[in-house]
Amino acid sequence: MATLDCNVAGIGFQNPIVMASGTFGFGREYASYYDINQLGGICSKGLTLHPRTGNSGTRIRETAGGIMNSVGLENPGIDAFLAEEMPFWETIVPVKIVNLGGSRIEEYVLGALQITADAIERRQAHLHGVDMIELNISCPNVREGGMAFGIKTEIAREVIREVRQATSLPLAVKLSPQAENIVEMALMCEREGADCISLVNTFSGMLIDIHKRRSAFANSYAGLSGPAIKPLALRMVHQVARQVRIPVMGMGGITSAADIIEFIMAGAEVVQVGTYNFMNLRAGEELLSDLQDFMQQQNLSSLDEIRGIIR
Amino acid sequence: MHKILSNEHISGGIYRMTVTGVFHEAGMGQFYMLRAWRHAPVLSRPISVHNIEEDRIQFLYHTVGEGTRLLAKLQAGDAIGLEGPFGTGFPQVQGRIALIGGGIGIAPLLYAARQLKQPDIYLGFREQAYLTEAFEPYANELTVQVGGSILDGLHLRRYDYAFVCGPLGMMKEAARMAKGITTKLYVSLEKRMACGIGACYACTVMNKNGNRKACTDGPVFMAEEVDWHGDLGL
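Output (structure tokens, whole complex):
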């Protein structure tokens, strides 16, 4: 049987299917519906140093081929995550990735320090802790910070440099498609010592309630995800993957094994699945089985045979 | 996937879908995520349990958008995906109980009426009453009103418990009426949902003690815990 093994910064993934931040809770929520230990990895809901209540008003709407969300990083905070979710995370097989958000550089740094200290402590106690941090400089739904760090390369450099110094854990940086120059941004992340580039976060979009004559979202704009963004995301993954040497986690609108193969062919090491979790409660299980079928049909023994073959 | 037995037009934009299967694990006030399409619309539709029999479940729904309009087009024999039951529904209580429904808000109250002991049932409609006869066998007293507010002239303090589902304005008014009296009032709120299982934080309800999720903590909440001044829109 074909191997689906992947590797990011020395961490082995049993397959390339990673559940994207914000769409999979802390994994526990989905564990009653299928065996989540089949997954390659799980990204936590975006966490911040302190709890956040998120945005008011409408948080989700549908649009052609996609959804728009304005959750605004609602999360219980890192303390509560470590106390309430880590006992479950200790027991699971997939690579465990904390998505770390923030409004200020110090907030990112303190968050990274806390997660790293916890991971080291657990490792010393021979327990499974957090494997990797995914730095979120790309959330479009918070007024301060978030995506503001992810637009200009020079501003992003500061936060990445500081967080890189604060953690010995493998560090992925999740890029915004709103970045002024996504390739330049990715190259900078690599130079600053990031171990992986994850892209893309949601596209900043707009929806107007024509009856109320105002934006459907209290925050004016919201993040677009789902099948609608797949061609755009795929192009960006392709552009970045051929320029950087570090691995890329590719995502944007994946709803089938064929979509996963496209991202791998564009150069992604692993992929993330987001919105599809809302379309299919057992998305991970189905995608994995379809991916295995594809490997068999195509007579492939490893994803390396097709990774990045689109020049 | 489950098989649709029937999908009847009831009144105006109201439809009732009957689906085969054994659904005894569902409680009153809980919901299922319904899906009969692959990609479009992206999300499934959360619909409350209207009734459950030995080998079938019923959903009563109002066509308001793309998803419910697609549901209304389905016919006997068609397949539909159901995930659930999800959410925290109405509590199993004893005492003097009022069930108060407004419009499509009557949907979860039929199954609730069957689980409770002869509640008084109040059903209000804007233009035309429907399905009220289905409630009769389970009601101690059934009051039906078309036009105006079903809450007018309702003596809430006569009851130990009241379960309300209807338009937001009606639930707000009921919550106001329940202030300062001993009646425990429960409301079933409606929010747009994505995952249905508490993972996405899209269906947040502002509660006096912080945010709650309509899909797991609710959709049924104690009225006194809801922050009625907060944003409770869809």
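Helices of chain B lie at 66-73, 109-115, 132-135, 168-177.
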